UniProtKB/TrEMBL annotation:
GO terms for cellular component: outer membrane-bounded periplasmic space. NCBIfam families: PRK09420.1. Its cofactor is a divalent metal cation. It comes from the Bacteria. One of its GO terms (molecular function) is 2',3'-cyclic-nucleotide 2'-phosphodiesterase activity. The lineage of its organism: Bacteria, Pseudomonadati, Pseudomonadota, Alphaproteobacteria, Acetobacterales. It holds the Pfam family Metallophos. This is Bifunctional 2',3'-cyclic-nucleotide 2'-phosphodiesterase/3'-nucleotidase. Belongs to the 5'-nucleotidase family. It catalyses: a ribonucleoside 3'-phosphate + H2O = a ribonucleoside + phosphate; a nucleoside 2',3'-cyclic phosphate + H2O = a nucleoside 3'-phosphate + H(+). It is found in: Cell envelope. Residues 36-269 form the Calcineurin-like phosphoesterase domain. It comes from Teichococcus oryzae. Residues 433-563 form the 5'-Nucleotidase C-terminal domain.
Length: 648
């Protein structure tokens, strides 16, 4: 998005397409001022512009580059406050190195916190991934901050808040005439209440989490009474519809609670204002408002800086917002020839703050753990059974067999659910697993399994199994077999980590049928059936059959809203991370020969249908099983388009 200049009149109209400069001194008024709010979100330990999985530089990520945007934005406006919206301490191998190898104790400062401390943040909030390593670790990380954090909807077991629900920041701000005024900036924070499901092992009996909108209604009146301006740090995404109790993505509904002047959203790893949220009632994706409240979502991994400019006027003894502009400034541009061009340099002070831990993490992830005879890639994982998913399922099954036997459940059929975590999408055309034959290092295992999930086993029926797969099949757009138009196969709004492949059964997916479930996991087409020929050991799966399914704590606890996985069906809670299970499997095997068992496939569509898939340029080195793939050229954002025809 391009840079924006401001005029007072345009700001009073609340526009983001502003052309004239801010008023000159001759027009200055002591009753007007401009306040700039800056925000980062979902940094996930990305300080350096570096991809630890591929062990190479990556100019699309890194707080070090975002820091240069911060410096430029501050230089443009004298009244500026910087906020963070959570998901700081987990998300890449640097985060895992800190948690599992080096550790973090009292008095030690986490590298991402050290980098942030150099930038002068005013306040932050918690993201759901802050809880992945446990409360003690989180406490040590927060203790290293030189700025406060707030969270209004997480309580300790005794009912006291884990963090202050809100904070009032007194600031000396300058009006247009250069005179100083003391304003009170109120800040309130929120996190998805699903943390209780996703990190149950760490949080059960220790914390409770309440609904975001309910917490806002409880705390905002008092905060508003103490503040001139109120900012909501909402580590939650933007979704349409009425407010529902315990909603994961509630930023839009939060905007309806009186008393908020600006919202920083996050969690979804998307950009707002922008096309990602066009067409949702209550959302103005161009002006950047949620029910009229200015808001931003600044991408992820440091890809953007969120900017909210507020025009303030003194009225009745206080300061009121009379106009606004919103913007998400990127740290890079993708050129027509697929080159990534940074828009700003990396900040050396930010790099220096985390350099020692960065170098140590590189040594950690380069440690060898085994060998692979074949490549492990995910370029075609959304259309055919895939080795990057198969190796996870193989490892989970290997690990769980003894657990189930020791728990007296060894006679039940054992299945495994796994998903392709790196499959392009919002991560871009390079966001795919791509491990070459030869030695395997820890970084390669982390490339296959990104998240610090812990292994869970659920007990479900054959009916729940079928519905689980129907929910997973929502990844695909419906293909009209009679249409001659180009039809993209994949719904880009559906996260690839929700495309569960379940091993141990065989099935086909008919994409000419509507999806039975919508994007939020609600039953949308009761008469639709995409899952065909579901069988176990060659026999049709019966509705009342009982199965054990190895999965992760996110899915088993309700993540993604999958039938049969709401926390109530968990029968085994393993102490180990799924990623460590994969690592131990590889160490035990010494040399692996990954290959998919092709237990699932897409049912054929007419040869006349122009079905297309966008995948990474690296896919050209591999053939998609079961398909003829005809390259159609590149997309503007660097993917390669293919027309898919069934090989048979």
């Amino acid at each position: 998005m391009s840079r924006i200049s401001f005029s007072r009149r345009a700001l009073l109209l609340g526009s983001v397409a502003l052309a004239a400069p801010w008023p000159l001194a001759a027009q200055a008024s002591p009753d007007r001022m401009r306040l700039r709010l800056l925000g980062t979100t979902d940094l996930h330990v990305n300080v350096f512009p570096y991809d630890y999985y591929r062990d190479r530089a990556d100019d699309t990520v890194g707080l070090a580059r975002t820091a240069s945007l911060i410096a430029a934005a501050r230089a443009e406006v004298p009244n500026t406050l910087l906020f963070d919206n959570g998901d700081l301490i987990q998300g890449n191998p640097l985060g895992d190195y800190m948690a599992y190898s080096r550790g973090l104790g009292p008095g030690q400062v986490h590298p991402v916190i050290a980098a942030m401390n150099s930038l002068g943040y005013a306040c932050g909030t918690l993201g759901n991934h802050e809880f992945n390593y446990g409360l003690d670790y989180l406490g040590h990380a927060l203790a290293g901050q030189n700025f406060p954090s707030v969270c209004a909807n997480v309580l300790k077991a005794d009912g006291s808040p884990l963090l202050p629900p809100a904070n009032v920041l007194p600031r000396e701000l300058v009006d247009e005439a250069g005179r100083s005024h003391r304003l009170r900036i109120g800040v309130i924070g929120f996190v998805p209440p699903q943390i209780l499901q996703w990190d149950r092992a760490h949080l059960q009996g220790r914390l409770t989490a309440t609904d975001i909108v309910d917490a806002a209604r409880q705390h905002l009146p008092a905060l508003r009474a103490q503040s001139d301006i109120v900012v909501a740090l909402c580590h939650s995404g933007i979704a349409g519809g009425e407010a529902k109790p315990g909603a994961e993505n509630a930023a839009l509904q939060l905007a309806e609670v009186p008393g908020i002047d600006a919202i920083f959203a996050g969690h979804q790893h998307l950009v707002f204002p922008g096309k990602d949220f066009a067409g949702i009632p209550g959302v103005d994706a161009q002006r950047g408002t949620l029910h009229g409240v200015p808001a931003v979502m600044a991408g992820f991994w440091g890809s953007h800086l969120g900017v909210i400019d507020l025009a303030l006027e003194r009225r009745g003894g206080g300061w009121k917002v009379t106009g606004f502009a919103t913007e998400a400034r990127p740290i890079y541009e993708r050129m027509a020839d697929r080159r990534i061009v940074p828009t700003v340099p990396a900040s050396e002070p930010v790099l220096a703050a985390a350099r020692a831990e960065h170098e140590a993490a590189l040594a950690y992830v380069r440690q060898p753990v085994g060998k692979t005879r074949a490549p492990i890639t995910s370029y075609w994982a959304l259309v055919a059974d895939d080795p990057s998913v198969q190796i996870v399922s193989n490892a989970q099954l290997w690990y769980v067999r003894d657990l189930a036997r020791n728990a007296g459940m060894g006679d039940l059929p054992l299945l495994s659910a796994a998903a392709p975590f790196k499959a392009g999408g919002r991560g871009g055309p390079d966001y795919y697993t791509d491990v070459r034959p030869g030695p395997l290092a820890i970084k390669d295992v982390a490339d296959i399994y990104l998240y610090p999930n812990t292994l869970r086993v659920v007990r479900i029926t054959g009916l729940q199994l079928r519905e689980w797969l129907e929910r997973s099949a929502g990844l695909f757009n419906r293909i009209d077999p009679a249409s001659a138009e180009e039809q993209p196969l994949i719904d880009p709004r559906f996260p690839s980590y929700n495309f569960d492949v379940i091993d141990g059964v065989t099935y086909r997916i008919d994409v000419t049928q509507p999806s039975r479930y919508d994007g939020e996991g609600r039953l949308a087409a009761p008469g639709a059936r995409r899952i065909l020929d579901l069988a176990h050991h060659g026999k049709p799966v019966e509705a009342e059959q009982i199965f054990l399914v190895a999965t992760n704590n996110y899915r088993a606890g309700g993540g993604g809203n999958f039938p049969g996985a709401d926390g109530s069906t968990i029968v085994l809670e393993a102490p180990d991370l799924n990623r460590d299970v994969v690592l131990r499997y590889i160490v035990g095997q010494k040399t692996i020969d990954p290959g998919a068992d092709n237990n699932w496939s897409l049912a054929p569509w007419p040869a006349s249908a122009r079905v297309t898939l966008a995948t990474g340029p690296g896919a050209a080195r591999f053939h998609p099983p079961g398909f003829h793939a005809e390259p159609l050229g590149s997309t503007p954002d660097g993917f390669t388009r293919y027309r898919l025809r069934h090989a048979g």
